[in-house]
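Justification of computing resources. Each target in the renewal requires a structure prediction run like the one illustrated here; the chain below, 273 residues long, is used simply to show the kind of job we budget for.
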Amino acid sequence: MALFQCKLFSQALFRSVNVNVVLPTPDSNNCFFESDVRLPRPGEKYQTLWLLHGVSADESDLQRFSSIERYAQAKQLAVVMPDGYNSMYEDNPCGGSYHTYIAQELPEMLRELLPLSGRREDNFIAALSMGGGGAFKIALRNPQSYGAAASLSGGLGTDDLKNTPAAAMPHIAPWHRQVYGPNMEYFDPDKHDLRRILKRQVEAGETLPRLYQCCGTEDFLYEGNTAFRDYALGLGVDLTFEEGPGVHNFDFWDPFIRRVLDWLPLAGGLVKE
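Resulting structure tokens:
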């Protein structure tokens, strides 16, 4: 894999931001084993996974605590990991326009710099924890941009804060108030309520991305995940749900990241755009 550690200026956030990008490239394995991994030729692009972190994390966490580089190399898939702060990946008046940055500005910038495909069928978004709800909202509000979206133990329910462990609340409550306001005055159900977004898009007849959910059965967000699953399936949405023993950590997420990549509709190599 080639690792690009980028520092870019974001107009949407009006500050410099960090982004890690990994691209599948020939490595030492090509010397010992037969491999069809190669550099792109003119006109060829990488399919891309936009991979978002959870609360209190940054652009490096998924590389440090999971095997995403190794998994992506095997799938010949580019992976973009931006720093999303504790933003819920929303546009908000106090914390920056992270939805706009992730969904629009960052893809436009990176496609000018790197050979990343811009086609809907070649772009996927996935995330864990806080990012899971963000990834679903981004994909559902921009269905023309993503072929599939995945949430690993995502914050998908309206009552997730009530189920958050008490020891975490002093840390989580302040950034939640920053995003949605001390009294939820910035919360717009049409923009921020995942169920309402999903129902509106279904009723409008939008071609939605395929959805994937997983959650550990001992996770404090398990109830919210199963409730969203049931709601989405009741609307006739194409959603795959998996669960297994586990709590809210990388011991559960790492093997399921690999399962997400197995589930994605990948071409198995470089694509022509």
